[in-house]
Design a protein that fits this description.
By secondary structure, the protein is α/β, with parallel strands linked by helices. The protein folds into two domains: 4-123, Rossmann fold, CATH 3.40.50; 127-283 and 315-332, 2-Layer Sandwich (Dihydrodipicolinate Reductase, domain 2). It contains nine helices and 15 strands.
Length: 335
C-alpha cells in the first residue's frame, strides 16, 4: 500500500516531539511538509525532523498538491477553522482533541465532511492502542461480568499562564485537555452515550481555568467517575469494574512507546491479588498506530477508528458537564 503523504499545521511540542517522529516510523505514513506562521520555526522543525518542505503559512501548506492529509495540533480554538479549510483544500484531516470548543462547533464539520468527501477525525490515539482494544474485547466476552463502574484519574502540573492549556479563550483547562479522555474511554467501554452527567470544578483564581474537575457519567446500568487536574502531581490510572471481575490499566492514556504496557485482569477471588492475571503488551508508539490506521481509512475506504460523529458525541457530554457546573444539577443527555 502506498504511504499516505502528510502535512502538519504548526510546530506544537506534541507534533514535533511525539506525533511527527511516530508517523515517520509508520509503515503507511510519510510526513512531507510542515508549516508555521513563523517561517523560521517551520524551517528549524523541518531541518531537525528531516521533512522535505516547510511553509510560512498554513494556507501555503494546504495548497500543496502533494499533501494528501493534514495533522492539526493547533490550539483548540483553531481546530474547526483549519479542519474546514484543509478539507475544502482537498485534504483528509486528523485533528487533535478536542476537535472543537463545543458540540455546536463540532457539528459544522459534518457538512464539511459530506461536502468535500474528506475524512475528518479526532486524534484520540487511545482508540487504537491494543490495551484499550483488549479491554473492550474482555468486556464483550463477559469475562468480568456486567460492566457497572469505571474510575479514572488523569493529572499533571502546569501553572504557566502563557501556556495554551491555561488560557480560557483557547479552550484551556483540565476537562478539555485531559478530562476528555475520561469521557471518551467511558463511552468507548460502555458502548453507548450517558443518560445524564454532573461535574464539580475548582478554578484557578488567576487563570480562571478549571484546574481540578471531577465528573460522574450515568449510563443507566453503570457509572463512570473520574477526576482530572492541570495542577496536581502527574498521575493516571483506570479501573473498569464488572460484576465478576475488574480490569486495571496502569498507564491508560500516555502509554510509553519504549516499554511494554500492562493490564491487570482480576477475578476478585483474593484481595491480595492471587486472582490477578497480568497481560503485557509489546512496546508500541500509539501515534504510529493511529497514523497507520488513519492511512488505512483513506486508502482502503474503511470506517474510521473514531468517526466524526463520535467526536461530536464526546463534545456533547463535555458541554453538559460544564452546564452542570453552572446549574449544580444533573444534566440530561438522553435527548
Amino acid at each position: 500500500m502506498q504511504k499516505l503523504r502528510w502535512g502538519v499545521l504548526g510546530v506544537a511540542r506534541i507534533a514535533t516531539n511525539k506525533v511527527i517522529p511516530a508517523m515517520q516510523r509508520g509503515s503507511l505514513t510519510e510526513v512531507v511538509a510542515i508549516a508555521s506562521r513563523d517561517r523560521r520555526k517551520a524551517d528549524a522543525a523541518a531541518k531537525t525532523l528531516g521533512i522535505q518542505r516547510e511553509y510560512g503559512s498554513y494556507d501555503a501548506l494546504t495548497a500543496d498538491s502533494d499533501v494528501e492529509a493534514v495533522y492539526i495540533p493547533l490550539p483548540n480554538h483553531l481546530h474547526v477553522e483549519w479542519a474546514t479549510r484543509a478539507a475544502e483544500a482537498g485534504k483528509h484531516v486528523l485533528c487533535e482533541k478536542p476537535i472543537a470548543l463545543n458540540a455546536s462547533e463540532a457539528r459544522t464539520l459534518l457538512a464539511v465532511r459530506d461536502r468535500t468527501g474528506r475524512t475528518i477525525q479526532e486524534a484520540f490515539m487511545v482508540r487504537t492502542h491494543p490495551q484499550w482494544l483488549k479491554a473492550q474485547e474482555i468486556l464483550r466476552t463477559g469475562r468480568i461480568g456486567e460492566l457497572r463502574a469505571m474510575t479514572g484519574f488523569f493529572s499533571y502540573y502546569n501553572a504557566d499562564p502563557k501556556n495554551i492549556r491555561n488560557i480560557t479563550d483557547y479552550g484551556g483547562g483540565a476537562l478539555m485537555d485531559v478530562g476528555c479522555y475520561l469521557v471518551a474511554t467511558a463511552r468507548m467501554m460502555f458502548e453507548r452515550e450517558p443518560d445524564r452527567v454532573i461535574a464539580a470544578v475548582e478554578r484557578d483564581p488567576a487563570l480562571q481555568t478549571d484546574r481540578l474537575t471531577s465528573v460522574i457519567l450515568d449510563f443507566g446500568s453503570g457509572h463512570a467517575i473520574g477526576t482530572c487536574s492541570t495542577q496536581l502531581v502527574p498521575y493516571q490510572r483506570m479501573n473498569i469494574l464488572g460484576t465478576r471481575g475488574r480490569i486495571e490499566l496502569e498507564i491508560p492514556f500516555n502509554a510509553p512507546p519504549d516499554r511494554p504496557s500492562v493490564m491487570l485482569v482480576d477475578d476478585g477471588s483474593d484481595l491480595l491479588g492471587a486472582g490477578i492475571e497480568r497481560i503485557t503488551f509489546a512496546a508500541i508508539d500509539q501515534y504510529t498506530v493511529q497514523g497507520d490506521r488513519f492511512a488505512r481509512t483513506v486508502r482502503e475506504r474503511i470506517v474510521p477508528a473514531a468517526p466524526l460523529e463520535d467526536a461530536i458525541a464526546n463534545m456533547t457530554a463535555i458541554d453538559a458537564l460544564f452546564r452542570s457546573v453552572e446549574t449544580r444539577c444533573w444534566e440530561d443527555l438522553a435527548s
